Amino acid sequence: MVIGASGAIGSAIIRILLTSSATQRLFALSRRSIEIHDPRVTALHVDLEEEASLAAAAAACQIEGGLDLILNTTGILHEGEAIRPEKGLRELDPETMARLFRINSIGPALVMKHFSPLLARDRRAIMASLSARVGSISDNKAGGWYSYRASKAALNQLIRTASVELAARRPQVVCVGLHPGTVRSAMSEPFLQRYTKNEIFEPETAASSLLTVLRNLTPAQTGRIFAWDGKEIQP
Ligand SMILES: NC(=O)c1ccc[n+]([C@@H]2O[C@H](COP(=O)([O-])OP(=O)(O)OC[C@H]3O[C@@H](n4cnc5c(N)ncnc54)[C@H](OP(=O)(O)O)[C@@H]3O)[C@@H](O)[C@H]2O)c1
Q1: pLDDT tens-digit profile of 97-127?
Q2: What number does the ligand 1 atom closest to the CA of 103 have?
Q3: H or E element at residue 108
Q4: Is 136 in the pocket of ligand 1 (CB under 6 A)?
Q5: Based on the structure, what is the number of domains in the chain?
Q6: Is residue 57 part of a domain?
Q7: Which of 30, 73, 154, 188 is the Cys-Cys partner for 5 at CB 3.0 to 4.6 Å?
């Protein structure tokens, strides 16, 4: 299952998964409608700000044997003219902060709430959410981007907390956060001029790296945050 199937990284993950014959079924969940012409794909609508849509999708995704992978690729950094990452304290706006927390922290937590029961019980199964390196508190040297940083730090804590609960009942579950690197997408586009060409990943490259990281994870690594290169990011 990929949530955020309309996004740059989410759609690239789906394209790669569909090249494999090991992918027997794929649930592609998104807010914006998408078109994928493949008999293995079931596309469903979800909006992370509407919990009922997550409950309805979860009810529609029950399959025998359970899911091997649930990957949430949703997120928000800016939106039109109204929401921009803050450069300083005086730019903080409670509504903007609440919106980023709703989409980047609370939404992914509700994804774990509604979809983790769908994970396979008899083998390793992965619940992963795209986080961001800037959510690391110990790594924060540059400052700025208050709401995005804080909402991703909260997400990391929610992933860790869910991992503890899931490990107690489901020892084969791997519940992790992932940092995809700097990836060309609608989200990153206004900020890419700060980077050299070599520092920017195309969505396909990032998606392929993330799938390799996921493939190699073991239940002993649950609760942690990993970058695209497999290296752990400290909280
Ligand atoms: N790109 C980077 O450099 C970078 C770096 C670090 C971390 N990340 C993280 O990677 C993830 C994916 O980012 P991306 O670069 O692929 O960005 P993107 O192309 O802008 O994709 C964002 C996705 O989130 C979805 N979304 C936003 N709000 C939603 C909601 N309320 N309900 C359902 N879906 C919602 C969007 O859906 P719609 O199509 O409906 O808008 C879209 O599919 C994010 O978590 C981001 O924080 C990205």
Answers
A1: 999 999 999 999 999 999 999 999 999 999 9
A2: 31
A3: helix 107-115
A4: no
A5: 1
A6: no
A7: 30
